[in-house]
Design a protein that fits this description.
heterodimer, A: mainly alpha, two-stranded antiparallel sheet, 4 strands, B: mainly alpha, Methane Monooxygenase Hydroxylase, Chain G, domain 1
């Protein structure tokens, strides 16, 4: 009974955070892209456009969901449903913190702890192809069909290097369980360099990490591999016919998939919740200091608000005080063992998500034949060679 | 670590149900809250404002079919690598050379399809010259 209650509480918390993150990633992405292009981005709905995701949600819910007469209604509605369901499922196996004890109960942030977590994530992400392929086919639109086909063949092509890139760190870890993988990456070389898989001995997994991230971009249909959407040739690809919430569902699934890919990369290559440098050198103090600095900066800028940004005078101090309060939480002994690892995990995953947006603001789109050639004749052989070199070095070092 | 298999997979089941509920609720809410105006032009597939000709259920390039077949072949190879990786520390060099043989055999097939031009999506420049 106790187990069920804990599971339900954690599940509600995770679902709330994940859905909020999906909604606010849209805002973050628009803001980051805007600042890359030297414009302010969303600005008028709430302070600095912070209420924009809510306004978008209301707008999308009240728009008409057009179901054209020529579509196959069952599959047409099934596609966004499948995409969202599968996108929100994989988060279940990601462990966010080590085990801790709270109110006499031993638990951990992270919903479950499967011994085949790696295979589970791969299986769910492969199923993600169905949402897009079915959507493209059921729309009965030439652009949708082309977009759906391209997307499906792109996603299955890049799944090979993705799967091969995951095997290389597994040779070092010899387990498919995420918690064990993270725990094996604790400790520091020479007391300072973290023993994450990207810095692992005898063979640093930096190439596996790069292959994994590149394939991850293609798996989530992001720039520079956003061929399914290719506005300039296919209107909007597989979701040309979709509107209102069905259209938003595909984007929610895309953001959920980005979050999952970044979390998996953090677990497999960046040492999960282990801090960048040892706690002995004060890594525990980083999160409260960062939050306190952000709070102090907001309080300082509130006094300097210019006339045409007059709401800053009110909103900045409020958010600043919230940040200062949050930094205090890191000193409560009961919460510290939960919050510090959680902070480091989310910092690494958040940085990878930022890289996704950064690259979108930097790179142009591939041509379709370049994309397929890159997957099969470059990424796949490189992943195989990387795997064999890792295997050989691990075997020799073990003897 | 969860102590039993039920304890490990019960949250997975719950999460799938929760995700399906959220997905269903989003689409249902969109249908319920959005107003509906039926009209003949709106019912046609979008084709940049031009009256659509024919059906979209057309024939498509055989390349997509070939990619699907290649994926099945090579993905099964990748799946074989996972149990191999898990027991690697115990078998070491023996496991390495066994897997090397397997990968070399698979790669032989890979280079065959590469040379046959299955992976080449662009029209060759020489072929382009012929068609012109």
């Amino acid at each position: 009974m106790e187990f069920i209650i804990i599971t339900l509480v954690k599940m509600a918390l995770t679902a709330f955070v994940l859905l909020t993150a999906c909604a606010y990633l849209v805002w973050i992405e628009r803001k980051v892209l805007a600042h890359i292009q030297l414009r302010p981005g969303p600005y008028f709905v709430g302070p600095h456009g912070l209420l924009q995701p809510l306004a978008d949600l209301i707008k999308l819910l009240t728009k008409e969901g057009v179901v054209p007469a020529s579509v196959n209604p069952f599959f047409y509605l099934l596609a966004p449903f499948l995409a969202v369901t599968l996108g929100l499922t994989s988060i279940v196996v990601i462990p966010f913190t080590p085990e801790f004890e709270i109110f006499g109960v031993k638990t951990a942030m992270g919903l479950t702890d499967l011994n085949i977590a790696v295979l589970f994530v791969l299986a769910i992400s492969s199923l993600g192809v169905y949402g897009i392929a079915i959507g493209g086919w059921a729309s009965n639109n030439k652009y949708s069909l082309m977009g759906g086909l391209r997307s499906a063949s792109q996603m299955i092509s890049y799944e090979l290097p993705l799967a091969l890139a995951i095997v290389a760190p597994l040779l070092l870890m010899n387990t498919l369980n995420f918690r064990t993988i993270i725990e094996a990456q604790s400790g520091y070389w020479f007391g300072v360099i973290p023993k994450w898989n990207v810095f692992a001995m005898p063979v640093p997994q930096i190439f596996s990490f790069l292959i994994f991230m590149t394939a991850g971009f293609a798996e989530t249909n992001r720039v520079p591999f956003d061929l399914p959407e290719a506005e300039s040739e296919l209107v909007a690809g597989f979701h040309t016919e979709y509107s209102s919430m069905m259209f938003a569902s595909f984007f929610m699934a895309e953001y959920a998939n980005i979050i999952t890919i970044c979390c998996v990369a953090t677990v497999l290559f960046l040492g999960g919740w282990h801090p960048l440098w040892p706690a002995g050198y004060g890594s525990d103090l980083v999160p409260p200091l960062l939050l306190a600095a952000a709070g102090a900066m907001l309080l300082f800028h509130a006094g300097q608000a210019v006339r045409w940004r007059s709401w800053d005078r009110f909103s900045f101090p409020v958010i600043g005080v919230i940040f200062l309060g949050l930094s205090g939480f890191f000193f409560i002994p009961l919460l510290k063992p939960i919050l510090v690892p959680l902070f480091w995990f989310l910092l690494k995953a958040g940085f990878l998500i930022f890289v996704f947006i950064w690259i979108r603001g930097t790179l142009p789109r591939f041509r379709y034949d370049q994309l397929m050639r890159f997957a099969w004749t470059f990424l796949f052989p490189v992943a195989v060679v990387n795997l064999l070199v890792t295997g050989l070095l691990v075997a020799l070092a073990g003897n | 670590m969860p102590t039993s298999i039920i304890e490990a997979y019960f949250p997975v089941l719950l999460q799938v149900l929760l995700a399906a509920t959220i997905a269903g609720a989003l689409i249902a809410l969109g249908v319920l809250l959005g107003k509906r105006v039926k009209n003949k032009v709106k019912d046609t597939p979008y084709e940049c404002g031009i009256t659509p000709t024919g059906s979209a259920k057309e024939r498509f390039s055989v390349k997509f079919y070939l990619v699907a077949m290649l994926f099945i072949l090579f993905d099964i190879e990748a799946i074989f690598l996972y149990p191999w990786a898990v027991v690697y520390r115990e078998l070491k060099l023996f496991a390495f050379f066994e897997m090397l043989l397997f990968i070399v055999l698979v790669l032989a097939g890979f280079f065959y399809i590469w040379k046959k031009g299955v992976l080449n999506w662009a029209i060759e420049e020489s072929e382009q010259g012929k068609t012109r």
